[in-house]
């Protein structure tokens, strides 16, 4: 009795650990997985999984993944999955004759393996589902005592398993070989058959043989260089990405204040949040900028999450570009992504292309968590009066470009300039333009933006940049045309003196005194070189 | 026990009755029914799949449809949508060839039936001498591409099969497929990506070509077969794309250089002529005349300012001697669209030599993203140009191809939602008049097209089934084995 209790105690400890880990530390990861798929309650979704091996496992995996929308439910489901793997492994190990404490410890290994596997952002839950199914099938075998029926079961089950869960059927075959080691000849034949099944599939399916052996839906293959990756930097980006998705602008700024973002992708989210709060230029140097890539960039296949880039373009009013970016993201994915579809519906509504928007919304209506949102958005279709009640759409329509030009990622300052010129109330674009020039260290253009003195007080970072630009060409500040705070002028002189002495490496003193000034960024942090 | 049996019988009878509800106390309406797809007064071939349809009104509870042939025969459908048995449908069509069908539609809504004014469906006396349609299905996207492929759809049924899909080889893209006058023994199909090459089937023999040479701008692009099958004309294009920023505009695909070459399928030689390789002129979209004596193409002078909107392509031709593989020494301009500020692309001569259909847009060479793009047709005998009002719409009309007897045409259009391209069929009579086009029939058209997020492009008829050995193709593509071409 005590022994049984211990067995379950370890499972409970495992389950609780998994639950807390995924719920507290890895919730953004779950959200990322959920947004990269779209589970719809219709036949089309089910049938689309039937044309390749492992499709049913994928379908169940996607069904589970949709609940990751709520990370605590997601954490619970992953905990259940991992504990099931552990318990099934324990039962199978016991059936193989192993006894004692080793059973529990050995049974932990597959569970821990699955835990580690799922840490990768490209790993699908279908792998865990398939693992559970194959272990169940193996356990089913232990109930058959007759050799003939065992062989029949093994042959049939390995074929069926390959269709349902894909090449994880090899695990079942492996267990058959270990469990029925007395009948090596017969069970080697079963193994041979299991090995041949993918080749048979290869004859009829349009997939490379390698994928039929390694699995089509266990892992998201983004490009040919995709391999297993797990690092906390990715998780940081995913956390920011999640907050961008749910428009938690204040929370993003708060998080960045508490812990300095470690990469450009995270900084893009922080800068977007600052911009949404109207603080971008004012607080630009409060955070660790390294260049324009901290502000805005193009989408690349290697990005942890490309969505923040799309969000930046969307919020600035570059609606077509925002749509293109998410559309291209979709093309790289093996399955429809609900976040992409939502954005495509939004961009088409903003652009007044209601027929296309309706097509996307009809699909979203078939989901569980986004149905209500889609129902609400459908009210806007062909209903300009209703649209007036949606401030975001109205504002974006106002902000977007009216005069056509080709988008150029290499001339993003030009695009931002156009947004400002066409709509001088597009303060976000204006802030992004100034910030872009500051981070690009393009002081010539910045100076041209502020040719004369202005009645309004300039943001501190702009004053610092203009002072810096002035100092590079003038011996003193006597004729400086902008209204600059005298303290900044004094500070600039002090920085110039100290940095000249320090050379290319800043002293601790300089860092403490000037770490948050534009001069420090320009001389020491920017990657303009 | 007896009571249970009676209950069963009543239940089953009720189920049968409820599955086939009769039209009672219907309101007579003098309006035509609002159905999807719009099959009202269209002309169809005898070999087309059943024209299943549904009511546009989503609140439709039930439809009762009777199709009566003027020469006899009747079909009846009662259900959520009008759906017909394939065999009975074809029997009815053959029985009424050259005449018409009368379609009576009653729709039940809010518990009340309404019977609408019947409409006609004409059955063309002209055969559609095609087994099916080939086309590419791809998401209407930008730079990246996901799942896509070249597919074959049987015209008399709803069956579709993949000829080549991008999942065959990782990172693969397929495009620009064409057959020789619908003959599946001659196929040209490009594969792009790191394992790129041109799949060429000639007289049933398959090979993978490497058409990239040091003397041409690019690998071969837009193909067109010579009627003898001994040559394929290709354009070679340095293509780029840019993205618009305003609503209603998405992508601009354009060339920064282009020429035309003719590939000899026997000798693996690319034939060139200085007339089609001018630096100051961009030549593209080649197409041989029905007898192979002329090579039609589109050409635009390189504008001085290099502005894309200034590229206006005219329809031109040059003589071609298939015996010697040589070109004429004069370029004829058949339609000078640039004079009217317009641009021509995708010329497709009818196989009887009478007409040439093309796409006309405001500028450029890739009209599929141009909302204003429309089909036009020139009568090659009289030179008269038909603006084809019956075929065109407010949306984009672009790719098109003729059936072997030149009495049927398939074309692509974005008229449904402005983004997703669909295929339409239409027939041409002896007087050169097209019938009202109809969308490619599907088993459940509303569901199918609503849930299809891909576009059709480059549609073509095929006179017979096509089989491509996937294993061979994959093995060849992933190897270094390519048949090289020489330039002459």
Write the layout of secondary structure elements.
The complex is a heterodimer of chains A (529) and B (488).
Chain A: H1 2-25, H2 27-35, H3 43-47, H4 55-65, H5 71-95, H6 101-118, H7 125-141, H8 147-165, H9 169-179, H10 184-204, H11 209-214, H12 232-245, H13 249-258, H14 264-276, H15 307-316, H16 319-332, H17 338-350, H18 354-364, H19 371-378, H20 384-387, H21 391-399, H22 412-422, H23 427-440, H24 443-449, H25 460-473, H26 486-502, H27 508-514, H28 518-525
Chain B: H1 2-19, E1 27-28, E2 35-36, E3 43-44, E4 54-55, E5 60-69, E6 74-79, H2 86-95, E7 100-109, E8 112-115, E9 119-123, E10 132-138, E11 149-154, E12 160-165, E13 173-180, E14 183-192, E15 197-202, E16 205-210, E17 220-225, E18 231-243, E19 251-264, E20 269-271, E21 281-288, E22 294-301, E23 314-321, E24 326-327, E25 332-335, E26 343-349, E27 355-361, E28 374-379, E29 385-386, E30 397-402, E31 408-413, E32 422-427, E33 438-439, H3 445-451, E34 455-462, H4 470-477, E35 483-484, E36 486-487
Parallel strand pairs in B: 1-8, 3-9, 16-35, 20-36
Antiparallel strand pairs in B: 2-4, 5-6, 5-7, 7-8, 7-9, 10-11, 10-34, 11-12, 13-14, 14-15, 15-16, 17-18, 18-19, 19-20, 21-22, 22-23, 23-24, 23-25, 26-27, 27-28, 28-29, 30-31, 31-32, 32-33
Overview of the molecule:
- The complex is a heterodimer of chains A (529) and B (488).
- Chain A is an all-alpha fold.
- Chain A has 28 helices and no strands.
- Chain A has helices at 2-25, 27-35, 43-47, 55-65, 71-95, 101-118, 125-141, 147-165, 169-179, 184-204, 209-214, 232-245, 249-258, 264-276, 307-316, 319-332, 338-350, 354-364, 371-378, 384-387, 391-399, 412-422, 427-440, 443-449, 460-473, 486-502, 508-514, 518-525.
- In chain A, helix 17 (338-350) runs antiparallel to helix 18 (354-364) and helix 22 (412-422) runs antiparallel to helix 23.
- Chain A is elongated, with a radius of gyration of 29 Å.
- The termini of chain A are far apart.
- The mean pLDDT of chain A is 90.
- With 488 residues, chain B is mostly beta strands.
- Chain B has 4 helices and 36 strands.
- Chain B has helices at residues 2-19, 86-95, 445-451, 470-477, and strands at residues 27-28, 35-36, 43-44, 54-55, 60-69, 74-79, 100-109, 112-115, 119-123, 132-138, 149-154, 160-165, 173-180, 183-192, 197-202, 205-210, 220-225, 231-243, 251-264, 269-271, 281-288, 294-301, 314-321, 326-327, 332-335, 343-349, 355-361, 374-379, 385-386, 397-402, 408-413, 422-427, 438-439, 455-462, 483-484, 486-487.
- In chain B, strand 5 (60-69) and strand 6 form a beta hairpin.
- Chain B is globular and about 90 Å long.
- The A-B interface holds A 44, 202-203, 206-208, 221, 223-224, 318-321, 324, 327-334, 350-353, 355-356, 358-359, 362-363, 400-407, 415, 418 and B 139, 141-146, 149, 162, 164-165, 167-171, 242-250, 252, 416-420, 450-451, 453, 470-471, 474, 478.
